[in-house]
Structures are given as C-alpha cells and as structure tokens.
Design a protein that fits this description.
The structure holds 2 protein chains of 2 kinds. By secondary structure, chain A is mainly alpha-helical. Chain A has 14 helices and 2 strands, in the order ααββαααααααααααα. In chain A, a hairpin with a 6-residue loop joins β1 and β2. In chain A, α4 packs parallel to α8, α4 crosses α10 and α8 crosses α10. The longest helix of chain A is centred in the first third of the chain and has 35 residues. The model of chain A has no long low-confidence stretch (mean pLDDT 89). In chain B, 75% of the residues lie in helices and 0% in strands. Chain B is built from 11 helices and no strands. Classes of the chains: A mainly alpha, B mainly alpha. At the A-B interface, α1, α2, α4, α5 and α6 of A face α1, α3, α4, α5 and α6 of B.
Chain lengths: 287, 267
C-alpha cells in the first residue's frame, strides 16, 4: 500500500512538494498571518461603551483618534525607541572589543570556550535573568550593599535606567556573535597591508576594520533593537516606566482591545522601517 | 596588524569583565536559592536547602511544572513535524515564491513577541476559542517551527545527495530512501532541533501571557505572577534555578550532539 502511494508520489514531484508544504505553510499562513490580519482589523473595530466588548466588523477610527489625542502614547513610543537605540549602541560598544579579543587574540581553546560562554546565556531563562537583576538592583540587594560604604543607595526598582541596563544585559550575546563572525572573516593580509602603509592601530580600526563590520553590527542590531522594542516584562519588573509593549499588554487585558491593536501598528511599523534600514547596511548577508 | 601588549591586556581584562557581567547575576541567583533568610536581601544570612523541599511540596508549582512540560512536549513534536516538512520542501525543490516562503517561516521571530502574542489572542477572541493550554501550544508551536526548520535545513544542506541517488538507483522507492537514508542523516539535527524547541517553549513568557487563560499557568507565568506581587517567596529562587537548568541542559546536550544553529533562534 505504502509502496503504491510512494510510487505515485515519485511520478508526481509537484504533488510531493505540495504535500510537504501544505502543513507548515498552512499553519504559518492561517495561524500566524491570519492572526496578524485579524489584529490589524481589530484596530478599526468599535467597542461597546458599556461592556467594553469588541464589535467585529463595526468599522471606526476611534482607537486611532484616542491614541492621537493623548500625548502619552507618543511619549511612550519615543521613550521605547530611544531606549532600544541606546541598548543597541551600548551592546555594540561592548561587543566590539569582546568580539575582537575572541577572534584575534584568544588562543583557539579559549576562543571555543568563550563562544560557548557567550552562547549559553541566550538560552538561560529570559525571565530568570530579569529576576536576577531585580534581586541585585532592589534597595537591599547586592548593588545597594556594594554602594553603602560610599554612602550611596541602591537604585531600587523604579528607575528607567534599569531598563537600559537589563535590556543590554539580555541582548548583548546577540550582538557579540555576529560581530565575532564578522571580525573572523576579515583576512589577515588586509590588516598587514594597512600596517605596511603606515596605519597605526586606531587608524586601521577606523578605516579598515570598522567599515567591514557594519553589516555584522547591523545584523546584531536587528536582534537588540527588535527585542527591546517589543519587551514589556523588563520595564514592568525593574522600573516604573511604560514601554510600547506595556500599553499593548495592559490594554489587551483590561483596557480597550482596539487601542491595543491600533498601537501594535507602532512596533510593526518601526520594525519594518528598521529592517529596510538594516538591509541597506547589508545586515541580511551577515545573519 | 600586531596589537601592542598593552592593548592585548586591556582587551583581555575587558572581555573578562564582560564575562563576569554576564555570569554574575546567574551565580547570585543560585546563591539565593540556598539563602536561609526568607527576606532575600544581600548578603545571604545562612545556608539551607529547605526551600527546595517547600517548592517540591507546592501544589501550584507542581501544576505549573506539569503544564510547562506538557506544552513544551506537544509544541516540540508539532514544530519538528512542520519544520521538517518545510525544510524538505525548501531544500529539495525549486519553485516560484520560494524566498517569500522562507521569509514567512522566520517572520514569527522577526517581529516582536508582543505582536505575535496579541495577534494570536485577537484571533482566539474573534473565533471564541477559550484560552488554555491548547492555545499556549498553538502559540509555542508557531515560533518553535523556526528553530526546527533552521536545524533541519542546515543539516540537509550539508548532507550529500549521492547516497539518496544510489538508493534510488538500487530500486528503493522514495519512502524507503527517506526512511533508510535521509531520516538517519537528519537524526541528530532533529534531536538537537527538538531540544532547542523544547528549551525555547519551556522558557517563553512574552507570547505565553497573551495565550494563557486564567487557569492555565506555565512555570514562567507562575514566576511572573509571583514577581508582580510586592513580596517574594523564597521558593521563587528555587523555581528560577530549575528554569535555568531545564533550559540550559537541553541546549548543552544539543551543542554536544553538534546540531549546528545553536546561536540563532533564541529570543
């Protein structure tokens, strides 16, 4: 029986292809793309003013009007984008020397060890890492204890600076790995040529190494930027600040679902714009 | 370029400091799990293993752990099936719209998790699907497919085609060839892809919070709701340590198997 079926598939390669793709493509199109479409429609639907329930296919621009009429939504969007950019720049500044050390100075054995050391935390529970920082940052935590001899206090769990610190901590490996791969790809001869032509260390870095690393930095920044833009757990657990994700999450649970849906246009739009920007820098070849 | 000894030392010290920065919080967490004081300030006030017993005895934690294991297992199986089918189609066939489809498969991890979460919730709402473990499984399978897909595609790309051709020449039909040649070649990629998908699902919270109903809590959701309260139970430290181990150990095994693609795909 199986023999007859497979024999038939052998003679019809197009049908085999369709059979292979039907499941995964169907799942992604229906479950994921379908949901995205339904989300976008929710943004244009009205809600019952008494029950707060969404009224499907009752078209209105109320949700957008509500977002545009209150400047808080703009402030939160700008704050989130600002922190995400700051996190991306900080991660890049930390990643460059670390990746350089890993790729060009560390012994092969140390390099392999460092690669694993950088990769493993990516998988060590996201939530637990935030929790660990909570215990460090809280007023009676490790940081407060270290600062107390100097008459200083711990930052507590209200400062927006905490989000910058913790998001950088979380996404740093995503920046180190592509930058490391980028530095490893630069041929030695290029650096020798620069030295022969009189390029000192800094000059070589600025004129030879850095330009070659731009695609790798852009590739890493897609992760650090996208993951920061969408985060709502970090601001919730280590600060008082609200991010784009908090507006979406809070409104989906208790507030207005159309507002949550309409505000989702912000991270989607920002990410699409950012992906275009990153592609121009050659990020997709470095992914 | 030859780096000066000073520069080399500075870079070494800087890298060491960054590694300390990466690992110190995790070490502190492990220390807290054995802290005798229930208040959780620094420094710890004594050594105890009592919280492990208390965590094991907690009905809520056991239930959340079971939920997490169920969700991660089913999502992993679904992701492996869908990811493998997709990988075979994308790697073995040329067809119109191929690059668009490969972009589609990575979309669930390219867009922020909060967008994935609220999208799924909006369609569950519209179709009147009650939120529960099944909705979490649907959500997790959707982004776990990418991990399975990446692993299998990477393996298929390296696998030589000649044994398959030889098998066909020797008269084996395509099912026999798949079962005896292709599948054994993919086995470790499936195993490591499965472990990574499991770790990803076991740990996920951003999308899960949108897909989880009030009654269905996974372990990370339980931890999150505990953290949102003002006081923190010391058992949270134990669960946190468990979460780290359950997500890191599979990845470590996957790395040993050498399935490739470990760096990518986390979130």
């Amino acid at each position: 029986m199986i023999r007859r079926i497979t024999g038939w598939f052998n003679r019809h390669p197009r049908t085999t292809l369709r059979a292979l793709l039907a499941g995964p493509l169907g799942w992604i199109s229906i479950v994921y793309l379908g949901s995205l479409l339904i989300l976008l429609m929710h943004a244009f639907w009205s809600k019952d003013s008494f029950t707060g329930k969404v009224e499907p296919f009752n078209w209105t621009l109320d949700a957008f009007a509500q977002i545009l009429s209150n400047s808080v939504y703009l402030t939160i969007a700008l704050r989130t984008i600002g922190i995400a950019m700051l996190v991306t720049i900080t991660a890049a500044l930390i990643a460059l020397p670390v990746a350089y050390y890993m790729a060009r100075i560390a012994s092969p054995k140390a390099r392999a060890l460092l690669l694993i050391a950088v990769t493993m935390p990516l998988w060590a529970s996201y939530l637990v890492k935030i929790y660990a920082w909570r215990t460090i940052l809280q007023s009676n935590g490790l940081l407060g204890w270290l600062l107390s001899p100097f008459g200083l206090e711990g930052p507590g769990l209200t400062e927006i600076v905490n989000t910058w610190l913790v998001l950088t901590y979380l996404w740093l490996p995503y920046m180190i790995l592509p930058v490391y791969a980028g530095i490893e790809r630069i041929p030695n001869s290029l650096l020798e040529a620069s030295a022969d032509l009189g390029g000192r260390g800094w000059m070589t870095f600025r004129r030879v190494i850095f330009p070659q690393l731009i695609p790798a930095l852009a590739a890493g920044s897609i992760f650090t930027f996208s993951l920061s833009i969408g985060d709502y757990i970090v601001p919730d657990l280590v600060s008082d600040a609200k991010f784009i994700g908090n507006v979406i999450y809070d409104n989906s649970a208790l507030g207005s679902f159309p507002v949550a849906a309409a505000y989702s246009f912000v991270p989607i739009g920002v990410m699409i714009a950012y992906l275009f920007f990153a592609r121009r820098l050659g990020a997709f070849e470095s992914l | 370029m030859v780096e000066s000894p000073l520069l080399r030392t500075i870079l070494r010290l800087f890298t060491g400091a960054v590694m300390l920065f990466i690992y110190l919080p995790l070490v502190i967490l492990a220390v807290y799990a054995f802290n005798a004081s229930p208040l959780g300030g620094w420094p710890p006030s004594g050594f105890t293993v009592n919280w492990f017993g208390e965590a094991a005895g907690s009905e809520a934690i056991r239930e959340a752990l079971m939920n997490s294991l169920i969700v991660a297992s089913i999502s992993t199986v679904l992701a492996l099936i869908l990811g493998t089918l997709a990988a075979l189609a994308m790697q073995r066939y040329e067809f119109f719209g191929k690059s668009a489809i490969s972009f589609l498969f990575v979309l669930p991890i390219a867009l922020p998790g909060v967008v994935t979460g609220i999208s799924l919730q909006s369609s569950f709402k519209l179709f009147g699907v009650d939120l529960g473990l099944h909705t979490i499984v649907i959500a997790h399978a959707t982004f776990c497919v990418v991990v399975a897909y990446n692993n299998v595609v990477a393996r298929l790309r390296r696998l030589p085609r000649s044994p398959e051709e030889a098998s066909a020449d020797l008269g084996a039909d395509s099912w026999m060839t798949f079962r005896r040649i292709t599948l054994p070649g993919m086995r470790t990629a499936l195993l490591s892809g499965g472990l990574l998908a499991f770790a990803l699902s076991f740990d996920e919270v951003i999308v899960t919070l949108f897909a989880a109903g009030p009654g269905a809590r996974t372990l990370p959701v339980w931890v999150f709701s505990e953290l949102q309260r003002s006081y923190q139970l010391p058992v949270v430290n134990v669960v946190a340590l468990l979460l780290v181990l359950v997500s890191v150990v599979p990845v470590w095994i996957a790395q040993r198997i050498g399935g490739g693609e470990i760096a990518r795909g986390g979130r």
